[in-house]
Amino acid sequence: MPPAILLIDDEEEILDFLERILNPQYSIYRAENATEGLDILNSQTIQLVISDVMMPGMDGLELCSKIKSTPSISHIPVILLTAKNTMQAKITGLELKADAYIEKPFSKEHLLAQISSLIANREIIIEHIAGSPLAHIKLNQSQEGKVFLDLLNEMIHNHIEERDLDVDELARLMNMTRITLYRKIKAISKHTPNEIINIIKLQKAAKLLAEGKYKVYEVALIIGYTSQSNFARDFHRQFNISPSEFVDSLKKK
Asked: What is the pTM of this model?
């Protein structure tokens, strides 16, 4: 399924033009005003928003501010398009936490490169930490995304010994509905919430093993496993190395 992009502009011709540029590489949602755009953001899984600044009613700047101040959608990158080319206009857009500010007329290549970069930054966050036992969760990300990831990481670590930590409990801890949590995680990674829980637990296990203070079975218990064999299986499946092999590899360094 291609990444979903929401286009917001009060001019149908602009929407048509943008859709022609972005098809078929992306799935396209369209809105003719900011209110309609917010409704789509709250009901669909959107990876990126492209909005005009000058619109009747709520303009693109106010829309950007609302997106970035709403926890359930604040991680979504926003590109603002504007005919204003003054420095103050750019500063205002960035102060409202827009991820990119592109002047009209713009080149197709510039827009596509900016979109690709912003979406790629989100996708590598969990993909990177999933493939490296000691990788950190904090990579290049918007401030709102960092806040969400930090909170997610903190909640899982605070309850890491609980064997019954699942999506429903994590959503409760994050003060979100299950659907909102699932949508927010899906927007920044290809993993499910349950997979995220497991990845962060196994990351914690790798860190504890690297410290050299605990035996493998002790680490398994600390992160909520009652079976050392299940822990070893999941660790190997995630990192392509067994816990004991991982410990041995660290001793050789």
From this structure: 0.56
